[in-house]
């Protein structure tokens, strides 16, 4: 009987939807959006799932299209417009800068442009707005009010922490020792080891991370008289750090009395996503940086929620991890500045001491990264290193256009070989252009005339906005679009002169892990788990839930991850690489959970 009623209800709604002009006016653009994006070079499955969810949300909404303009739905509408726009922008080859199939026939060319830009494109854009709107609207109606039931457990928090730590450390270290001894070393890793051996340090790779490597590397070499043992000791430390950070987030979920199935799901994500076990023993600065971001996020949640019995320990952990954020990546200072400002705006009056403490940590991190490094005589990163996006935009302008003035060409040629940047420019990575500037050896001239080049940059942007736009999109879209197949993690040891080499103790384990990780490139369902842009979208969704629940604490806790994304869209050296956005993968499981956490009034002041 119930099934019959449901069928009748569904049939009634279907008739209402598809026999009204308003229903067809909404349905067709949503279907069009979902279909035309199948030509994308990104992950179409993400668009398809979102399209289906949007249509389901539309189907379940009993109000007409006028609800979109309801004042209470402003956040949903703004986010929907934003998401629809970025999908169009990421796929500009399909929608914005198209080749006209009628280059000779003037009348047909004009007609085609009118149909494309004034009918087809607005329809697709409107379909995207509707899809995202109904997802957010349904979330507002259903998920905003959702919260899980509390569960009581007998095990103590320490037992849970050490159990999670033991599981993760045992798994990661087993993969390391038996399949990938002595760890994963990239070109950057070898450069840092070279600095340790030579004693000539550079802050191109944050020197405090190099010092951290040195501590374990030198200890291992001294104890075992073997350079590979030195690398292994650092790798084991890195594994312990990541396992501890993940266990810290898991025990926090336990203290929140989350259902054990959810806790096991989070533990499984940390254990079995390849990015976690591979990066845990990769000698990259991004790994301790990501651990610090996660520890800071969890510590601040415990601070807000009074989950920590020892408040001083909680605050100390948060501030120490904040300092790590500022020291282990060059964009960490920007993250700290944004964190301090947002905290002051949200909680400045009620939590003044914590606000001052965060500001002090930011200042200390700046002093350690700038004046102190200079006093120690350690070389800072060169000028071009922080100019990835402007360099790519100027290079693309030179490559695509022949109308630059002689003065503009002459000014560019004073710091780089124009033919070289035009020949070597790659839309997805800035290294060829930066290396061309370095080979020219004129960075001192660039530094001395930076105002002149800033004016040139702005001038070229106004005269060639299309080249600037395409260069920026192609250099950053991996961090804010649906996902791309690009290198995700390393698995080898970069060739070096120090006899550091891979030793495989179990070829069966090594082969199994490689095959398993490769599946995340090929299997449609799995590769969504390693989509950087999707992580960004889900964190924005968690921020939306926090906003609708009027939860300032959740809104603050997403700031570190969103600040990292912001730093990438203004200075990404590669268009889509997990290590640069690895904190998002570490924090998303925890942020997703706390977005739906409904604490008792006694615990939140």
Structure description:
- The protein folds into 3 domains: 11-143, no CATH class; 157-380 and 488-594, no CATH class; 383-479, no CATH class.
- The chain contains 30 helices and no strands.
- It has helices spanning 2-18, 21-36, 44-60, 74-90, 92-95, 106-143, 157-179, 187-198, 207-224, 227-255, 260-272, 274-280, 286-305, 311-328, 332-347, 352-369, 371-375, 388-400, 406-413, 418-424, 431-440, 443-448, 450-463, 465-476, 507-522, 524-527, 532-548, 552-557, 559-571, 582-594.
- Helix 4 (74-90) crosses helix 6, helix 6 (106-143) packs across helix 27 and helix 13 runs antiparallel to helix 14 (311-328).
- The longest helix has 38 residues, at 106-143.
- The radius of gyration is 26 Å and the shape is globular.
- The model is unreliable at 1-5 and 600-605 (pLDDT under 50).
């Amino acid at each position: 009987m119930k099934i019959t009623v449901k069928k009748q209800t569904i049939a009634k709604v279907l008739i209402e939807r598809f026999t009204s002009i308003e229903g067809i006016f909404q349905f067709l653009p949503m279907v069009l959006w979902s279909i035309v994006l199948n030509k994308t070079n990104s992950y179409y499955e993400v668009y398809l799932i979102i399209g289906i969810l949007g249509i389901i949300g539309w189907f379940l909404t009993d109000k007409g299209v006028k609800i979109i303009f309801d004042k209470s739905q402003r956040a949903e509408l703004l986010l929907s417009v934003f998401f629809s726009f970025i999908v169009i922008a990421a796929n500009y080859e399909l929608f914005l800068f198209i080749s006209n199939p009628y280059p000779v026939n003037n009348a047909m060319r004009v007609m085609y442009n009118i149909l494309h830009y004034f009918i087809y494109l607005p329809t697709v854009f409107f379909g995207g707005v509707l899809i995202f709107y109904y997802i957010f609207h349904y979330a507002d109606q259903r998920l905003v009010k959702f919260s899980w039931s509390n569960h009581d457990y007998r095990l103590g928090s320490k037992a849970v922490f050490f159990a999670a730590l033991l599981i993760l450390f045992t798994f990661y270290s087993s993969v390391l020792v038996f399949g990938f001894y002595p760890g994963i070393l990239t070109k950057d890793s070898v450069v840092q080891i070279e600095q340790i051996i030579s004693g000539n340090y550079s802050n191109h790779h944050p020197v405090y991370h190099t010092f951290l490597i040195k501590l374990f590397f030198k200890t291992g070499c001294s104890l075992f008289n073997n350079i590979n043992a030195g690398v292994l000791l650092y790798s084991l430390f890195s594994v312990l750090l990541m396992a501890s950070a993940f266990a810290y987030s898991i025990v926090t979920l336990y203290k929140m009395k989350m259902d054990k199935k959810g806790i096991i799901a989070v533990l499984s994500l940390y254990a079995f996503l390849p990015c976690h076990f591979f990066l845990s023993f990769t000698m990259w600065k991004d790994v301790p940086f990501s651990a610090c971001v996660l520890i800071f996020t969890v510590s601040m949640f415990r601070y807000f929620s009074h989950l920590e019995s020892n408040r001083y320990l909680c605050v100390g952990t948060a501030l120490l991890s904040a300092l790590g954020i500022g020291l282990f990546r060059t964009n960490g200072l920007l993250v700290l500045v944004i964190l301090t400002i947002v905290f002051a705006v949200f909680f400045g009056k009620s939590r003044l001491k914590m606000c001052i403490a965060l500001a002090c940590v930011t200042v200390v991190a700046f002093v350690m990264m700038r004046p102190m490094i200079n006093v120690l005589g350690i070389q800072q990163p060169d000028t071009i290193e922080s100019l990835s996006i402007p360099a790519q935009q100027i290079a693309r302008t030179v490559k695509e256009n022949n109308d630059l003035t002689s003065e503009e060409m002459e000014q560019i040629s004073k710091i780089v070989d124009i033919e070289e940047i035009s020949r070597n420019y790659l839309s997805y990575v800035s290294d060829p252009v930066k290396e061309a500037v370095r080979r020219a050896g004129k960075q001192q001239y660039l530094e001395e005339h930076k105002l002149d080049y800033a004016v040139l940059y702005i001038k070229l942007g106004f005269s060639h906005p299309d080249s600037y736009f395409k260069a920026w999109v192609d250099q950053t879209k991996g961090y804010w679009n649906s996902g791309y197949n690009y290198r995700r993690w390393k698995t080898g040891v970069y060739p070096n002169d120090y006899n550091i080499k891979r030793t495989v103790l179990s070829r069966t384990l090594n082969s199994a892990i490689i095959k398993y990780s490769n599946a995340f490139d090929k299997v449609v369902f799995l590769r969504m788990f390693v989509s950087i842009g999707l992580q960004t979208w889900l964190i924005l969704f968690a921020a939306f839930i926090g906003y609708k629940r009027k939860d300032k604490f959740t809104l603050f806790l997403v700031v570190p991850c969103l600040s990292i994304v912001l730093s990438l869209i203004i200075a990404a050296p590669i268009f889509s690489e997990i290590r640069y956005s690895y904190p998002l993968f570490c924090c998303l499981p925890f942020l997703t959970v706390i977005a739906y956490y409904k604490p008792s009034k006694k615990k939140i002041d």
